[in-house]
Design the sequence.
């Protein structure tokens, strides 16, 4: 507040500043206030508490002076009050505004009092003042008052009735408080939208449209939102984005108009985004997660993008959230739960493997130590037992490897029925150990879903183990598993006759680290991991429980429809292939027995001429000195591994890459697997049968062309 100098004693007895109705309005002051029609009722009424405020209730004071009031009298009023501004009236109608600072400056100078004290105040009005009518909506009053520039921003706003008569003054502090309340309401509304992004996306859309229509009022909310928001056309061309999304996409200050949203994402992700845009065009909301293009100055980001059509404008509203950390936490939780799961089953797995290995060792020992050659029928029986036991071992190992794999970035089409059967087989010994009676109804037809098989199987395993643990003290132990599909949804149900879930904790069972099990039996991540996996597959999990009678968990996943692929030439309507001449094959494997088996299969089943190499270096030398039609190569080898051989072939003999097959028990990790996939080289997992190897090789051009 401006401090006024003491009033000289010579000013005593000056005329009091009373308003006068007898003076006409002079055109001198016609440009001193903003145009205002006191009878107008402009602005749209809102629904918030702030928007319902009556401007009369915001009046800070009703003090005023007449236009003929002397400067020294106005000065005295400022001295005896804390007011910073006083409206100046011509009769009852405001004609201007004077300020404490202005009057103090006039009279505080060396000759100011002598020059200006006896002049009327209408000669010293502020250049402009703002007057609004009592019927003006609060938003309109805020837009006008808070949109002023320079010193005008701090001036009081004069309130008048319908006839333009003075009602009172509203200070800028009051208006700022009202605006703050309005901003706070909008911030709270945006926070609610963020928490319920899926259910309340339309509310967010309304906010975006309102921001576009009134940028001055809502810019702070739009630009500072942690949710990335953008408006696109039907082809994905960016029209406008807020600061968060602009930063993630690497756009400039102008928002890079005419740039397509797809260009900001990795090439492998653009198909998903394009499909989501096409889905929006059909009237359905699109939800997709995609990785942004890597940038040197930014970490890798995974965005969850929700797309919705704005019916009023024909645009597409894209709401993006950075879920990189959330998905990383989920992946870590899944791996931790897998480890806990394997730790709890390691004894049972070892038992199952030993049971399968024992016949292999036993019958092999009989064959080795038999003094007299056995009958052919008995030899075939021994071979059948050894083959079946080996296949069972391979199945257990394959399931363990698949279960331990990191989550896929891209889902594949798979049969829910097969995954359920494999999960039950994996836990067969545990079900038997718990003395539980299993009732399963998986039907006879495939149930196709688009999923990560290892993650879906983990859901089955977790729910079955939870059911077994719940029945540990139950006299009746019945485990019921069923699969069904209806309304384009696949339904998996796991029901038990255990203790049930107490109502007091029913709402917490999906919380991370919440468990009722002893510390050595549970991590508290099982159900929360299941829920996270199911949500990532656009599904849901439901639970029904009766304390003392048992619980039932139902997993709901969207069905995935794919056209069947013909498995034979006859099914595809193709003629039988002609007999082919002998082909030259190169087998590269550091395990002599494995290489020998592949060699025998190629010779006996495919009639190939075969050469072998124990490592990549020997193989490259043979490739340089000879012609080969087929290459079958292990991945993990000493001296020069299989991936290095593939790189050499791709550089020096790229035509042979079309007839190149990897065989391996382990692909060497995600980076190696990604490089192999990018090169388009198929991989056959060890152990495999002769028929499976032949089936894989028959798809190669070298065998199909002859």
Sequence:
């Amino acid at each position: 507040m401006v401090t006024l100098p003491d009033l000289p004693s010579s000013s005593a007895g000056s005329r009091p500043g009373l308003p006068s109705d007898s003076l006409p309005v002079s055109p001198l002051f016609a440009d001193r206030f903003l145009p205002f029609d006191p009878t107008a009722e402009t602005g749209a009424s809102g629904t918030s508490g702030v928007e319902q405020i009556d401007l009369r209730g915001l009046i800070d004071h009703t003090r005023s002076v007449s236009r003929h009031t002397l400067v020294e009298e106005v000065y005295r009023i400022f001295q005896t009050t804390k007011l910073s501004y006083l409206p100046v009236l011509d009769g009852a109608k405001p004609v201007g505004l004077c300020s404490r600072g202005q009057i103090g400056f006039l009279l505080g100078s060396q000759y100011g009092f002598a020059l200006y004290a006896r002049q009327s105040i209408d000669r010293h009005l502020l250049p402009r003042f703002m007057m609004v009518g009592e019927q003006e909506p609060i938003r309109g009053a805020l837009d006008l008052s808070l949109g002023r520039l320079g010193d005008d921003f701090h001036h009081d706003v004069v309130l008048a009735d319908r006839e333009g008569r003075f009602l009172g003054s509203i200070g800028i502090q009051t208006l700022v408080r009202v605006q703050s309340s309005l901003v706070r309401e909008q911030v709270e509304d945006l926070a609610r939208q963020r928490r319920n992004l899926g259910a309340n996306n339309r509310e967010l859309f309304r906010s975006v449209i309102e921001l576009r229509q009134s940028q001055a009022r809502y810019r702070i909310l739009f630009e500072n939102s942690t949710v990335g928001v953008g408006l696109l056309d039907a082809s994905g061309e960016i029209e406008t984005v807020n600061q968060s999304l602009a930063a993630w996409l690497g756009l400039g200050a102008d928002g890079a108009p005419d740039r397509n949203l797809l260009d900001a994402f990795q090439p492998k992700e653009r198909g998903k985004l394009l499909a989501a845009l096409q889905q929006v065009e059909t009237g359905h909301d699109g939800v997709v997660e995609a990785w942004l293009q890597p940038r040197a100055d930014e970490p890798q980001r995974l965005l969850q993008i929700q797309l919705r059509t704005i019916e009023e404008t024909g645009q597409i509203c894209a709401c993006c959230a950075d879920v990189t950390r959330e998905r990383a936490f989920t992946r870590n939780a899944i791996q931790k739960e897998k480890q806990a799961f394997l730790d709890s089953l390691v004894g049972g797995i070892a038992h199952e493997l030993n049971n399968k290995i024992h016949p292999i060792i036993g019958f092999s020992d009989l064959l080795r130590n038999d003094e007299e050659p056995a009958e052919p029928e008995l030899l075939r029986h021994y071979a059948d037992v050894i083959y079946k036991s080996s296949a069972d071992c391979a199945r257990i190992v394959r399931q363990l490897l698949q279960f331990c794999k990191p989550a896929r970035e891209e889902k594949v089409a798979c049969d829910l029925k097969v995954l359920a059967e494999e999960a039950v087989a994996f836990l067969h010994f545990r079900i038997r150990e718990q003395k539980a009676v299993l009732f399963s109804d998986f039907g006879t037809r495939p149930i196709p879903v688009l999923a990560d098989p290892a993650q879906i199987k983990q859901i089955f395993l977790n729910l079955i183990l939870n059911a077994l643990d719940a029945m540990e003290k139950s006299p009746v132990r019945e485990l019921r598993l069923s699969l069904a599909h209806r309304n384009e949804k696949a339904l998996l149900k796991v029901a038990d006759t255990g203790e049930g879930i107490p109502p007091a904790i029913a709402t917490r069972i999906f919380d991370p680290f919440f468990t009722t099990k002893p510390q050595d039996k549970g991590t508290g991540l099982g159900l929360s991991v299941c829920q996270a996996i199911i949500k990532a597959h656009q599904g849901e999990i439901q639970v029904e429980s009766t304390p003392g009678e048992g619980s039932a968990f139902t997993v709901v996943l969207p069905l995935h429809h794919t056209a069947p692929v013909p498995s034979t030439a006859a099914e595809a309507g193709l003629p039988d292939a002609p007999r082919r001449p002998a082909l030259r094959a190169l087998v590269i494997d550091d395990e002599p027995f494995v290489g020998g088996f592949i060699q025998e299969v190629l010779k006996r089943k495919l009639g190939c001429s075969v050469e072998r190499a124990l490592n990549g270096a020997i193989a490259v030398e043979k490739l340089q000195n000879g012609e080969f039609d087929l290459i079958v190569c292990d991945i993990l080898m000493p001296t020069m591994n299989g991936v290095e051989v593939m790189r050499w072939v791709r550089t020096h003999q790229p035509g042979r890459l079309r007839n190149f097959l990897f065989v391996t028990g382990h692909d060497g990790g995600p980076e190696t697997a990604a490089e192999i996939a990018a090169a388009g080289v198929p991989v056959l997992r060890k152990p495999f049968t002769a028929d499976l190897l032949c089936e894989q090789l028959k798809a190669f051009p070298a065998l199909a062309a002859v």
Q: What stands out?
A: Residues 324-369 form the longest helix (46 residues). Confidence is low (pLDDT under 50) at residues 1-46, 563-579. Residues 620 and 648 are 8 Å apart (CA to CA).
